[in-house]
Each structure stands twice: as structure tokens, then as C-alpha cells.
């Protein structure tokens, strides 16, 4: 069962295509991350799925409904955490949650929501006295209180310090264990790697790769690098990179490369200093997929 | 339907709570007109004026209307624009609460404050200045109040539609205060205005709200409903509704796409 099906989605702003013919699917209960640099089309895509923006072309089905035409029933079943949105600053935390809770037919209890997001000890504080991180948790609480099947999180941890991000990740993991389908956007590699079952890298309005954190990019972007240090150039390494005494080559077949290299070294009695085989990190893959435009 | 009405009522309570917790808004809407009454009655003395009635008999209803307009126009426009620019409206739009129910609650809570402002003003007038209320004029007062508050609420939301939260206070005050002067809210009944200025005031809604409301407190005036003024207010209500429907938006940034292409020029997009 797919919670989300997107086919051929297009969104234009004037003559610029912010989203240019993208396809993806999200299975029920999955955490799906849209990963990409600023301006790649993440927020536009998510806002179309939320029903906040209209699409110019393509098919979008979320929970069996078309967000472009769906009404209050659709919004009973989704929860939205926008990238930035305001509160009534003079309400307390629990009043705010109660107010949004009253919009839903099968909401969670206020205390339960506040426990999930870790705001319980601040429940009687006025919203305007919350720190930035606490306000972001309140954002999450308001998106969650309706007990949605599908949750949209638009850059949920941007601006967090590392420990606040860890806490937010735990919250998302808890939600996953409650069986929620989650679509999150992020430009943090480690966040996508830690949270996502599936991720799609979006750049310039198109999806350049989809996969799990361990398969994204495909074999082309995941090729190993073999490197070592030596003073002379061993035979068979004429086409290797040679930089500051370090020889390196990117290869599909590290076994064969290593075998040839180590056979030579053993035969010649040469030590291959710092010999290693490295795989690109998700960050390396992301940077090569997106052309490094964000960093 | 019943559920929606219950939601509107509940939402009105939340809107009211936020209003009373914002001292600046509460002061300007409720206390400022009362303060003006105390000042006028002290400066001029509560003696009979040009209309043959006491200062308070004229100023209490005039300032009551000013308070009502502050609530239904200024305060509604500013509050809604801030909520829009901070993303509150967009957040609400993503919930199952019907958009009309949310807007109805915002409007009705400002109407409630307008009524409260008028009631307080009249109560102070009765307690301190022997203000007389003519019971046969109560239908006129109610009809004028409803028409006036509806027109100003619609105009306030129209201004919210065309201006950012930064400029809405300036626009509402720059429109309301001059109109208040030329429509006879602040300048007493003895003052003769140049006829052309009277005619200018006739074009705008405030005078059609103030004049019948004040008249209803002047002894000996007719108790029939002032339909001409009500028609003017109805016209401004229509203008306000049309403009609000054309320009009102829920998104802090203009939505681009269907129905919004005309605003593409100043479209700032977050992607």
C-alpha cells in the first residue's frame, strides 16, 4: 500500500519550473526524506502534497485522495509542520494544543502529545516565552495532535543545536513506531541517513536519485576508491591519480585492483603505506548528485 | 453544521482570550474611547451644547461608535494581518477547521468587542454623566450597529488583503482618524464645517454610522430606521466584501499558481 503516489508533478512560477516532472512513491508507515539544496523544489513539492499550493501538471494521490481538491476530511488525516509558522503568542502551550486539538475528530490527548514532543514541563508557559527549539516542538505538537496517518515535516530541525536535533530525531523515530507515514524534507545528510527508510535527492526541480541511504546514487556514485602512499610508481598505476605521494583510483572492481597491487608489492617486497579502500559517504554522493550547489 | 457552529463559538473564545492578553490592543480598543469621553466631559464640562444636549449625551454615542470601529476595523485588520504574516492563517488552513468558520470567529469576536466597547461607553455615560437612552430608538441603534460594524469589518479585511502587517496599522489609522474628525466624532456638534468637507464625509462610511447613532440620543429626533445611512453602509459592506474576496490570502507569501497569476509580479517564492 502506498500512502503517496506522485507522477509527473510540475509546478511553474512564471517561466521558471520549480518542480519539473517528478515521480515518487511513499509506502505506508515509511519515513521518506526529500533531500536537496535550498531552492531545489522541496518545499514546493511538499506544499502541493499538503494542499497549500496548486500543481500545474501531474498526478498526486495522498491517502487515496487528491490534495488539490480534497477538503476537511483530507486534513483530518494529515498533519503539517511548516518550515516557519506563527503561534498566538499569548496563549499557553497547552491552550494552543487544545485549540488545534478541537479541530479534529479523533485527536490525541494533550498530555500525550506534549509528552511525545517533550514539552510537558512547559505546558503552562506562554508561547512567547518558549525558546526557538521549544517553539519548533510546539510546531510538531500542533501537527501531531490530530493523530494523523500522514505527517509532513518541512525541515524540522533547521536551526537546531546538535542535541536538540538528536531529540527531534528520537521524536520522529517514536512516530515511526506508531505507524505514521512521514515525509520530511531536509538538507542535512546525517538527518536523512539516520531517519529515512527511503530518500530522494532533488536538485533543480528534478529527482536525481532515489533509494535507501545504503543504495542511493546506484553503483555509479558508490564506486570505491583505492589509495596508498609510495615513493616510486608501481607498474599498472600509470592512469592513477598521483597527488603528494598518494596514489588513488576510483574503481568498480576493488578486488581485482587490490589483488594486482598487493601481488606486486609482495613480489617486490614493497610496503604499501596507508593502503585503504573507501566508499563515498552519503554526503559525497549527495554532493556529486547535486553538483555541490549548496555547500 | 451544528458541529461547525460549535467550532465557531469555541474559536471565538480562543480569539477573545488572546485579545485580552494583549494589553496594547485591549487599551486602544476599549479604554481609549472611554478616556476620550472623560477628557471631553472634563474639558467642556457636561453642559448643554449646540444641539441642546449635554456634552456626554453627544460624545458618549459618538465615541462609542469610534470604539466599535476601532474593534471591527482597526483591530480586526491588524490582528488578521499579523496572523497572516506570521503564518498562523496558513497553519489553520492546513487543519480540518473550515476556513469560513475560522474567519467567522475572528470577525464575530471583533463584533463582540465592538458591542462590549459600546456597552461600556454607554454604562459610563449613564453612571457618570446622566446619559439618557431613549428606548424607542433601540431598534435604530441595533440596526445601525450591525450595518456599521459589518461594513467596517469587511473593509478591514480588504485592507489586510492588500497590505502587510507592517503597514496595516498606518493605513487603518490614516483612514479612520481623519474620517473621525470630519464625520463629527471628535469635533463637537457646535462646530460648523465647510459644506464641501461635509460632502466628502458623506461619501465615506463613518459618518453614516456616527450620525444616526448620535441622533438616536438627541431628544425629539425621529425614531424611524435611517435607511439612507444603512444603504450607504450596505454599499461599503459590498465594496469591502468584494475587495476582501479578491485580495485576501492565507499564505504569508502570495500563493502563485491558479487564481493568483495576477499577483505574480511581487511573488516571492519559497522552494
Gist of the model:
Chain A has 295 residues and is of the alpha/beta class.
Detailed description of the structure:
The complex is a heterodimer of chains A (295) and B (271). Chain A has helices spanning 42-50, 72-77, 93-101, 110-117, 132-144, 162-177, 189-195, 218-221, 254-268, 282-290; strands at 2-13, 16-27, 31-35, 57-62, 78-81, 150-154, 181-186, 198-203, 206-211, 224-229, 241-243, 246-251, 273-278. Helices cover 33% and strands 28% of the residues of chain A. Chain A is built from 10 helices and 13 strands. The radius of gyration of chain A is 24 Å and the shape is elongated. By secondary structure, chain B is mainly alpha-helical. Chain B has one domain (2-270). The longest helix of chain B has 31 residues, at 55-85. The two termini of chain B are 37 Å apart.
Quaternary structure: heterodimer
Strand content of chain A: 25-35%
Q: Roughly how many Å apart are the termini of chain A?
A: 37 Å
> Spans of chain B of 5+ residues with little confidence (pLDDT < 50)?
255-271
Q: What is the CA-atom radius of gyration of chain A, in angstroms? A: 24 Å
Number of strands of chain A: 13
The percent range for strand residues of chain B is: under 5%
Element pattern of chain B in H and E = HHHHHHHHHH
What is the average per-residue confidence, as pLDDT of chain B, rounded to a whole number? 88
Strand order of the largest sheet of chain A: 5-6-7-3-8-9
| Helix count from the secondary structure assignment of chain B | 10
Relevant terms:
heterodimer, A: 295 residues, alpha/beta, six-stranded mixed beta sheet, four-stranded antiparallel beta sheet, 10 helices, 13 strands, 28% strand, elongated, B: 271 residues, mainly alpha, 70% helix, 0% strand
Amino acid at each position: 500500500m502506498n500512502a503517496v503516489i506522485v507522477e509527473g508533478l510540475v509546478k511553474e512560477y512564471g517561466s521558471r519550473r520549480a518542480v519539473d516532472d517528478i515521480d515518487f512513491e511513499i509506502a505506508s508507515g515509511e519515513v521518506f526524506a526529500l533531500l536537496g539544496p535550498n531552492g531545489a523544489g522541496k518545499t514546493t513539492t511538499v506544499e502541493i502534497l499538503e494542499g497549500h499550493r496548486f500543481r500545474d501538471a501531474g498526478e498526486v494521490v495522498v491517502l487515496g485522495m487528491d490534495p488539490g481538491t480534497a477538503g476537511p476530511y483530507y486534513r483530518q488525516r494529515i498533519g503539517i509542520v511548516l518550515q516557519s509558522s506563527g503561534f498566538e503568542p499569548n496563549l499557553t502551550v497547552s491552550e494552543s494544543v487544545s485549540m488545534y486539538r478541537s479541530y479534529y475528530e479523533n485527536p490525541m490527548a494533550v498530555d500525550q502529545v506534549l509528552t511525545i514532543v517533550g514539552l510537558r514541563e512547559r505546558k503552562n508557559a506562554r508561547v512567547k516565552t518558549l525558546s526557538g527549539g521549544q517553539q519548533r516542538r510546539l510546531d510538531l505538537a500542533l501537527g501531531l495532535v490530530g493523530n494523523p496517518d500522514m505527517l509532513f515535516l518541512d525541515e524540522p530541525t533547521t536551526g537546531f543545536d546538535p542535541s536538540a536535533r538528536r531529540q527531534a530525531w528520537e521524536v520522529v523515530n517514536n512516530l515511526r513506531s506508531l505507524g505514521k507515514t512521514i515525509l520530511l524534507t531536509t538538507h542535512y545528510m546525517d538527518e536523512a541517513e539516520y531517519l529515512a527508510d527511503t530518500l530522494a535527492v532533488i536538485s533543480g526541480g528534478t529527482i536525481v536519485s532515489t533509494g535507501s541511504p545504503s543504495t542511493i546514487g546506484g553503483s555509479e556514485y558508490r564506486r570505491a576508491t583505492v589509495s596508498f602512499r609510495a615513493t616510486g610508481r608501481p607498474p599498472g598505476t600509470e592512469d592513477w591519480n598521483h597527488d603528494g605521494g598518494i596514489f588513488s583510483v576510483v574503481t568498480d572492481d576493488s578486488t581485482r585492483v587490490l589483488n594486482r597491487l598487493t601481488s606486486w608489492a609482495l613480489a617486490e617486497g614493497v610496503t604499501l603505506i596507508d593502503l585503504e579502500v573507501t566508499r563515498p559517504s552519503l554526503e559525497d554522493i549527495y554532493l556529486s548528485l547535486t553538483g555541490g550547489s549548496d555547500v | 453544521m451544528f458541529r461547525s457552529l460549535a467550532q465557531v463559538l469555541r474559536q471565538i473564545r480562543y480569539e477573545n482570550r488572546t485579545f485580552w492578553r494583549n494589553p496594547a490592543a485591549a487599551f486602544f480598543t476599549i479604554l481609549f474611547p472611554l478616556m476620550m469621553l472623560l477628557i471631553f466631559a472634563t474639558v467642556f464640562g457636561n453642559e448643554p451644547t449646540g444641539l441642546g444636549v449635554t456634552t456626554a449625551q453627544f460624545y458618549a454615542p459618538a465615541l462609542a461608535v469610534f470604539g466599535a470601529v476601532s474593534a471591527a476595523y482597526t483591530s480586526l485588520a491588524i490582528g488578521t494581518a499579523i496572523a497572516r504574516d506570521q503564518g498562523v492563517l496558513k497553519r489553520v488552513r492546513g487543519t480540518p477547521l473550515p476556513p469560513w468558520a475560522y474567519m467567522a470567529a475572528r470577525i464575530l469576536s471583533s463584533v463582540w468587542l465592538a458591542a462590549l466597547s459600546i456597552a461600556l461607553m454607554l454604562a459610563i455615560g449613564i453612571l457618570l454623566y446622566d446619559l439618557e437612552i431613549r428606548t424607542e430608538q433601540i431598534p435604530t441603534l441595533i440596526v445601525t450597529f450591525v450595518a456599521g460594524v459589518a461594513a467596517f469589518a469587511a473593509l478591514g479585511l480588504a485592507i489586510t488583503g492588500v497590505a502587510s502587517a507592517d503597514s496595516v496599522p498606518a493605513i487603518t489609522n490614516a483612514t479612520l482618524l481623519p474620517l473621525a474628525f470630519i464625520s463629527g466624532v471628535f469635533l463637537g456638534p457646535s462646530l460648523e464645517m465647510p459644506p464641501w468637507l461635509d460632502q466628502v464625509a458623506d461619501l465615506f462610511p463613518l459618518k453614516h454610522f456616527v450620525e444616526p447613532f448620535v441622533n438616536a440620543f438627541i431628544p425629539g429626533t425621529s425614531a424611524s430606521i435611517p435607511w439612507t445611512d444603512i444603504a450607504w453602509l450596505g454599499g461599503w459592506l459590498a465594496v469591502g466584501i468584494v475587495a476582501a474576496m479578491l485580495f485576501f490570502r492565507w499564505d504569508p507569501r502570495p500563493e502563485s499558481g491558479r487564481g493568483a497569476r495576477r499577483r505574480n509580479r511581487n511573488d516571492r517564492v519559497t522552494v
